[in-house]
């Protein structure tokens, strides 16, 4: 299996205002988009891949001037890969409010001439889906072969099936949930507090002051990172290993680093704080918290999913304690009660929530088999 | 059942230097101590109760000038309560380095004439046990009827059974663990990072600057608090309830509080940051991280526990994901392989780690029955 190779993002500008769920309106905006493979003549082979918290439109391949910057789902998307770009036309879209090129908090607010900062409107999963629908319009895609995503990306796929039931044949929802639990929201709120109380956050206007709330972002990322890994996986990878065993063989009796897990997490936190935008972090965690399609149906998810027309593929991972298999099963139950066609796989994998991004042959082969079916279905209809 | 009523703490000063595990020495120090009930003539009915992260010597009863300040284990300790002060003489000791009166980071370092701050030596569970042993000496107690604790307090009880096997007849270890996991350490380290990077921490010397790293402490406490509650319990108590439903019935689309769980956790964090010391938080989380009696025995807990002579009572709670029942079972297994007498209860309780402090009749009745046995044993020997 080879990578899709060199890819290039493109900017799509939208002049028509976007009405947001909050009541606010985005006057105009642009989105970063990346595509892989070729759209067929009847425009039926497009698959939209939706990203999670810290990912982007850069789903697969690498950039000519930055060959180490490989797309976040390069093991999933490419020629001969589970989502095969020799067959499908795959689209990655950086969501509004993100910090990888699409209009977001660090861009200039046309109303003030200064960066939006915390004044960038809080967007929701549904707002993202509406913005993605315009990308589909622009590309002339009336119906996706599939909309697919993991985690927060899976929420977008699910929202697509509700908001635009005619516009996707298949909905692929990996390691996701129909809504956050109180514990999920709690972790998000602690992360937000760490950012909001960092003096360098400056009420969200840190851009103008030439500072970045790195400490807050670091703590936020460390918290997040713990929830992405499984307890068992952490135990196996790090356990209670000391970082500098050779040096002392003992504890340091200070507040620096004793254990490898500390070193690993702080390093991850530092790295993240150097490339991720604090306002984006706040905004995306709120989008996660707010997602709850059953909310307008008295909490009845089956009612919320009654309008769907797609076929569904769901997968969850046994050691994922962020969005446990039970949450995926809730979606499956609600779909089955609506007599939707559902394929569901509960993968026995040790890597927690992160498993959806990793190489697990059972998981990847199941997705491959599902897309093979999608492809044969398309071929049959085209014939 | 009535409370023990009005109680008074006492200060015990120790002039003999205390050698610490880190290699440092505490030249002199004092400990806050509280006792309940009456020491019998042969001094055989004493029970030492060890405290966890944010508790103190104030185990039961209340203060004459502060009747709302009820001891942290008042439902466990008192006349007619599971640990019955009509029978037992119960001792609470505030650990060294804590912030409730015993010598700690906010006290004056005799070497510099200024508050210790971050220069207060990092103490370990074993150091605390050595300091507690001197309290026993001072009170003329050669052997405790029992040493008891929950969580970090349970670690102290376990350390007692290893370090002073002749000095306790029973060892009562509730909701504890023989060592922290990588995930436990990770949560502690994020909490420490939040404090250490708060500009008001000032390298630990915030006392002199008249500031307190409240934001860091708040975030640290919020993280800790999430790990003390079970996912299910949070779901039941808070779920996705909005705080101001009546006001708007909708999301606020900002970075303030939407959900009740956010309101609850921020409130708990704020409250904690007003009374707890930041250096103590760092120090106590390090004591937690370092505890690992098997470490000097190639990780073999059974070897570490081979020297013990006590009888053991252990209890764990099914929904405790901080120190899960599995961790208690490790201790039980290691004890059984040494042919120690062990009573173990796995309590089906919804409240997570916090369950060890709450009223659960099955749990409290088991502890009561165990102490009844301890009492009868003492009576038989005394006869």
UniProtKB/TrEMBL annotation, chains A, B:
GO biological process: homoserine metabolic process; methionine biosynthetic process
Important for acyl-CoA specificity, annotated site positions: 322
Enzyme class: transferase
Catalytically driven reaction(s): L-homoserine + succinyl-CoA = O-succinyl-L-homoserine + CoA
Subcellular localization, as worded in the UniProt entry: Cytoplasm
Chain residues that bind substrate: 221, 354
Gene3D superfamilies: 1.10.1740.110, alpha/beta hydrolase
Catalytic site positions: 151 (nucleophile), 320, 353
One Gene Ontology MF term: homoserine O-acetyltransferase activity
GO cellular component: cytoplasm
Main localization category: cytoplasm
Pathway connected to this protein: Amino-acid biosynthesis; L-methionine biosynthesis via de novo pathway; O-succinyl-L-homoserine from L-homoserine: step 1/1
Annotated transmembrane regions: none
Pfam families: Abhydrolase_1
Job of this protein: Transfers a succinyl group from succinyl-CoA to L-homoserine, forming succinyl-L-homoserine.
Protein name: Homoserine O-succinyltransferase
Gene that encodes it: metXS
């Amino acid at each position: 299996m080879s990578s899709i190779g060199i890819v290039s993002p493109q900017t799509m500008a939208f002049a028509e205002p976007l009405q947001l769920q909050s009541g606010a309106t985005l006057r105009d905006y642009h989105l970063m988009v990346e595509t892989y493979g070729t759209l067929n003549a009847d425009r039926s082979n497009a698959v939209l891949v939706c990203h999670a918290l810290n990912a982007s439109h850069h789903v697969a391949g690498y950039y000519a001037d930055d060959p180490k910057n490989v797309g976040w789902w390069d093991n999933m998307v490419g020629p001969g890969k589970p989502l095969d770009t020799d067959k499908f036309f795959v689209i990655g879209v950086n969501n509004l409010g993100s910090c990888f090129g699409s209009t977001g908090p660090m861009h200039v607010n046309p109303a003030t001439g200064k960066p939006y900062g915390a004044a960038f409107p809080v967007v929701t999963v549904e707002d993202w889906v509406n913005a993605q629908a315009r990308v589909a319009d622009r590309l002339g895609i009336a119906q996706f072969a599939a909309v697919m995503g993991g985690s927060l990306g899976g929420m977008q796929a699910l929202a697509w099936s509700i908001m635009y039931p005619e516009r996707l044949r298949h909905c692929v929802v990996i390691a996701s949930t129909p809504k956050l639990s109180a514990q999920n929201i709690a972790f998000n709120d602690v992360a937000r507090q760490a950012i909001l109380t960092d003096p360098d956050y400056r009420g969200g206007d840190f851009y103008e002051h030439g500072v970045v709330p790195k400490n807050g972002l670091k703590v936020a990322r460390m918290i997040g990172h713990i929830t992405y890994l499984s307890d068992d996986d952490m135990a196996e990878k790090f356990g209670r290993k000391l970082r500098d065993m050779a040096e002392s063989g003992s504890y340091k009796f200070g507040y620096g680093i004793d254990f490898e897990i500390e070193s690993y997490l702080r390093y991850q936190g530092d790295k993240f704080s150097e490339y991720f935008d604090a306002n984006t972090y706040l905004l995306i965690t709120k989008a996660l918290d707010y997602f709850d399609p059953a909310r307008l149906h008295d909490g009845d998810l089956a009612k919320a999913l009654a309008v769907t027309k797609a076929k569904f593929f769901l997968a969850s991972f046994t050691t994922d304690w962020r969005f446990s298999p039970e949450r995926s099963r809730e979606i499956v139950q609600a779909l089955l009660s609506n007599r939707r066609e559902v394929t569901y796989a509960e993968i026995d994998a040790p890597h927690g929530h992160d498993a959806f991004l990793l190489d697990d042959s059972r998981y990847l082969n199941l997705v491959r088999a599902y897309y093979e079916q999608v492809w044969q279905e398309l071929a049959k209809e085209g014939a």
